[in-house]
């Protein structure tokens, strides 16, 4: 019996039991469909994390204040209060730190953007709400990949003050702001409202809106990146927050390859400037995080979730394969006399083996193809209706087809071998 004839016999055998064949395919269909959807969700989440991190800026280092263990221990010992825990949580990062880093490491550091943060009350007319306020410098748009869609960003004159800026106060604490569209919506009810040139109250102080930020959407952890207001950092520190330190600084390196050097140089500089003693980095009063570390951490979370869901999908495929083996064993039992007749008229064990393997392969491949269609459709529906980020990966689709075929053939080997091993006389006597 040639291969074509084996296909015809296999298809005829499956067609005689359409309902049983369809139910046998169901496990493979579900398994493959789930694999496609899970991989699409995982790829979409990974891409979203990458885009979000890249939207914060390129070649970025972020420096946060930390707590020196040696200083904390010194404070605890000098407190003289037994049983009372004491810690040194003071922030030692200053604007001068940021300015000196930008000035001293021109080879590795492109620009530095210090930031102070606070939650503030905003009001415009009868509308009032709360939002996030960031005090930043004029380097903030360049370092953090931010753009203004309407109006402008505030100037160095408004930030630092200068004798040329005769229309501005000379202390550089101008009450101007750039606002995100979510904050605009809180104040006006419509994010598209143009409020350039109008005044809004921030913690009961009037600020003039000079620009509206381009929307960024949700961040990597779901936070609204458009719910914020930017003001000159000197204004924020002196007029609103009354603080003399900064909350963090973003450092844009000249090149991705220069990030390790920049991180090393900045750490050494801050240790000397803050008069820190070894051991390092245990005694540092600051933390430096690279953009790569942030991306790897967040992708690790999404990768773990994808792996767990993929395990569930693989289990579904295995269950589908066991279903194929079960039905094929039933089919061999039902067709024992047929097998005996075919062997009696000249069919070899190889012909019988090939026939049942082809039946198992057809069930798994056809189920895999249907599963791919349903999986892709499910990913599209999740993206369009549910708002999920999904990316259908061609490699995952091809892999799903191959795996479904392998599962079908693997679990079809035992029933096919059992059929091929039947003795013709015993098979003909089977009732």
Task: Report what the structure shows.
By secondary structure, this protein is of the alpha+beta class. It has 14 helices and ten strands. The protein has helices at 3-15, 18-55, 69-79, 95-104, 140-143, 156-160, 181-188, 233-240, 259-273, 291-334, 336-344, 349-384, 394-420, 424-429, and strands at 60-65, 109-124, 127-136, 148-151, 176-179, 199-202, 205-213, 228-232, 248-253, 286-290. The chain has a six-stranded mixed β-barrel. Strand 6 and strand 7 form a beta hairpin. Helix 2 packs antiparallel against helix 10 (291-334). The protein is elongated, with a radius of gyration of 34 Å. The relative contact order is 0.19.
Taken from the alpha-carbon principal axes, the silhouette is: elongated
The neighbouring-strand order within the major sheet is: 2-3-8-5-7-6
Which structural class matches the secondary elements?
alpha+beta
Q: What's the total helix number?
A: 14
Helix content: 40-55%
Overall pLDDT level? 81
Q: How far apart are the termini?
A: 26 Å
Could you give the count of β-strands? Answer: 10
Low confidence ranges: 72-89, 163-170
Please give the largest β-sheet.
Answer: 6 strands, mixed, barrel
Give the helices and strands as they follow along the chain. Answer: HHEHHEEHEHEHEEEHEHEHHHHH
Proportion of beta-strand residues: 15-25%
């Amino acid at each position: 019996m040639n291969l074509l004839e084996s296909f015809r016999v296999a298809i005829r055998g499956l067609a005689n039991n359409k309902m049983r064949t369809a139910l046998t395919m169901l496990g493979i269909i579900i398994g493959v469909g789930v694999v496609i959807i899970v991989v699409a969700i995982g790829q979409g989440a990974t891409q979203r994390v990458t885009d979000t991190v890249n939207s914060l800026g390129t070649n970025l280092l972020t420096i946060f204040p930390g707590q020196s263990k040696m200083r904390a221990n010194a404070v605890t010992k000098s407190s003289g209060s037994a049983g009372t825990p004491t810690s040194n949580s003071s922030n030692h990062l200053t604007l001068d730190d940021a300015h000196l880093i930008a000035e001293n490491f021109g080879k590795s550091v492109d620009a530095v953007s210090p930031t102070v943060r606070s939650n503030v009350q905003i009001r415009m007319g009868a509308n009032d709400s709360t939002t996030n306020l960031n005090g930043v410098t004029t380097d903030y748009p360049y370092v953090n990949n931010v753009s203004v869609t309407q109006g402008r960003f505030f100037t160095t004159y408004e930030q630092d003050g200068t004798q040329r800026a005769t229309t501005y106060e000379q202390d550089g604490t101008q009450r101007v702001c750039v606002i995100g569209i979510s904050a605009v919506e809180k104040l006006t009810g419509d994010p598209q409202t143009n409020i350039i040139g109008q005044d809004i109250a921030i913690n009961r102080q009037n600020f003039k809106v000079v620009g509206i930020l381009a929307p960024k959407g949700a961040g990597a952890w779901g936070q609204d990146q458009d719910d914020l207001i930017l003001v000159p950092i000197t204004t924020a520190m002196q007029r609103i927050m009354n603080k003399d330190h900064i909350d963090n600084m973003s450092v844009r390196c000249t090149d991705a390859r220069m990030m390790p050097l920049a991180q090393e140089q900045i750490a050494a500089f801050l240790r000397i400037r803050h008069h820190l003693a070894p051991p390092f980095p245990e005694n540092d009063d600051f933390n430096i995080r690279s953009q790569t570390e942030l991306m790897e951490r967040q992708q690790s979370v999404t990768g773990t979730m994808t792996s767990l869901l993929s395990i569930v999908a693989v289990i579904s495929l295995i269950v589908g394969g066991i279903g194929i083996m079960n039905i094929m064993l039933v089919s061999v039992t039902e067709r024992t006399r047929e097998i005996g007749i075919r062997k009696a008229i000249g069919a070899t064990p190889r012909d019988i083996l090939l026939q049942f393997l082809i039946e198992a392969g057809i069930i798994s491949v056809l189920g895999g193809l249907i599963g791919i269609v349903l999986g892709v459709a499910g990913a599209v529906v999740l993206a369009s209706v549910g708002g999920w980020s999904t990316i259908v990966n061609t490699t995952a689709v091809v892999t799903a087809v191959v795996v479904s075929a392998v599962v079908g053939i693997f679990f079809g080997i035992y029933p096919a071998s059992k059929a091929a091993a039947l003795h013709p006389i015993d098979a003909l006597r089977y009732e």
